[in-house]
């Protein structure tokens, strides 16, 4: 019996180093164990494409589309290019037959384009972030644009046979704000690869001998509370803050540190993942935060943090805060006052918490990306074979395809 064909249509895929790219890579590998999989992905902006089609194994091929460099900071420019490249991805995918297509964002306009033009018999929307809810509504025009876009996205979602989200808060948000029914919604959490988990959990940690070191590794953008943290620690002589990453706020933070002669905050540009390990090794406390506009999101970086066993300080509310409260060795702060945050940091220093083996075991048991990706196989099996997910087992699928 020939294998059925599954397409993954995504703006982000390896070799791009993002959570979305790694999530889809794991999904593609898992699905290729049971189906013929074609991935249609955008190359990194402004980079050349050496090979437009890469065959990863007998049942998995990656088709790359080159992307011009453009300014993502301007919403209307970004929206235009998202629409253009969404159309190109769908046209490319339509050139090969598919029984089922998985369309993933945060490329927002890919959803309505796929809903209208994708020829796959069955369509699954994979929502990593509810990005249209994050749009600014600070002016009447922006509020009108956001309302129209939200309505358009929600109508588009009704055209999909299933919708996958990363956490229960996103699921509840969609149930409350759209006409989607619960039986169409599935939760596939973000996670961490087994390779990264092993490296982080097995590192020999040696914090700075004199300075209590707080470390942030990730995107440095406007969605985080960096200035609250910086102003909280700038007078703490026994504390050093290390920020590692890139983003639209990096230059502003650099100028802020220079203008205010802040000596105990160190800003580093984005590093390859393997080069972030020394920063983890020398840390006493890991920092993360999200502003209220992003309260449905659980950053994938948190799974990385928890894999170290180190204590985690989170400034914010919402899904990520609730998630971290289920772990030990976490300090969740929902008050955005610099003096209050300073007192919390002093308290963590006094407590001197050791690494949490329990946190590492929980991540290993529940949030390894390779295991989580089998959920895509289960959803595909249900939609293509009319089976209930509870009765679908990966081993059964593999056996049936080998017969």
What does this structure look like?
This protein is an alpha/beta fold and 403 residues long. Helices cover 41% and strands 19% of the residues. It is built from 16 helices and 14 strands. It has helices at 19-31, 75-94, 110-117, 140-157, 168-177, 194-202, 226-233, 250-259, 277-281, 301-308, 319-324, 338-351, 357-366, 369-372, 374-385, 394-402, and strands spanning 5-10, 36-42, 53-57, 60-65, 100-105, 122-127, 162-165, 185-187, 212-219, 239-246, 265-268, 285-289, 312-315, 330-333. It has an 8-stranded mixed sheet, sandwiched between helices. The protein has a 6-stranded parallel sheet with strand order 11-10-9-12-13-14, with helices on both faces. α11 (319-324) links the parallel β13 and β14. The N and C termini lie close together (8 Å).
Q: How would you summarize what this structure contains?
A:
By secondary structure, the protein is an alpha/beta fold. It has helices spanning 19-31, 75-94, 110-117, 140-157, 168-177, 194-202, 226-233, 250-259, 277-281, 301-308, 319-324, 338-351, 357-366, 369-372, 374-385, 394-402, and strands spanning 5-10, 36-42, 53-57, 60-65, 100-105, 122-127, 162-165, 185-187, 212-219, 239-246, 265-268, 285-289, 312-315, 330-333. The strands form two sheets. An eight-stranded mixed β-sheet has the order 3-4-2-1-5-6-7-8, sandwiched between helices. It has a six-stranded parallel β-sheet with strand order 11-10-9-12-13-14, with helices on both faces.
């Amino acid at each position: 019996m020939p294998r059925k064909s599954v397409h993954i249509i995504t703006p982000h895929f390896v070799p791009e180093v993002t959570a979305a790219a790694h999530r889809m890579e794991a999904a593609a590998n898992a699905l290729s164990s049971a189906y013929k999989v074609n991935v249609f992905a955008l190359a990194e902006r402004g980079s050349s494409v050496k090979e437009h089609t890469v065959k990863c194994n007998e049942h998995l091929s990656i088709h790359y589309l080159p992307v011009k460099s453009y300014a993502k900071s301007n919403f209307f420019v970004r929206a235009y290019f998202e629409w253009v490249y969404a159309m190109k991805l769908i046209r490319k995918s339509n050139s090969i037959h598919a029984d089922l297509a998985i369309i993933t964002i945060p490329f927002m306009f890919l959803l309505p384009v796929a809903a209208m033009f994708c020829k796959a018999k069955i369509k699954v929307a994979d929502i990593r972030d509810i990005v249209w809810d994050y749009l600014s509504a600070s002016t009447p025009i922006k509020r009108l644009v956001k309302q129209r876009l939200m309505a358009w996205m929600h109508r588009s979602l009704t055209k999909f046979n299933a919708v996958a989200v990363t956490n229960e808060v996103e699921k509840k948000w969609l149930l409350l704000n759209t006409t989607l029914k619960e039986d169409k919604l599935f939760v596939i959490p973000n996670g961490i690869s087994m390779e990264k988990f092993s490296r982080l959990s097995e590192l020999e940690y040696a914090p700075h001998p004199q300075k209590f070191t707080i470390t942030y590794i990730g995107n440095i953008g406007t969605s985080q509370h960096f200035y609250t943290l910086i102003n909280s620690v700038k007078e703490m002589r026994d504390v050093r803050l290390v920020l590692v990453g890139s983003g639209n706020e990096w230059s502003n933070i650099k100028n802020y540190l220079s203008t205010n002669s802040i000596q105990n905050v160190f800003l580093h540009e984005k590093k390859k993942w393997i080069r972030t390990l020394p920063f983890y090794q020398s840390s006493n406390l890991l920092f993360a935060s999200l502003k209220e506009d992003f309260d449905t999101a659980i950053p994938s970086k948190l799974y990385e943090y928890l894999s170290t066993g180190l204590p985690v300080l989170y400034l914010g509310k919402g899904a990520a805060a609730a998630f971290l409260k289920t772990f030990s060795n976490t300090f969740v702060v929902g008050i955005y006052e610099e003096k209050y945050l300073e007192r919390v940091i002093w308290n963590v220093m006094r407590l001197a918490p050791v690494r949490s083996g329990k946190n590492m075991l929980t991540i290993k048991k529940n949030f390894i990306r390779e295991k989580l990706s089998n959920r895509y196989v289960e959803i595909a099996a249900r939609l293509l074979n009319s089976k209930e997910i509870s009765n679908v087992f990966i081993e059964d699928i593999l056996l049936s395809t080998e017969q």
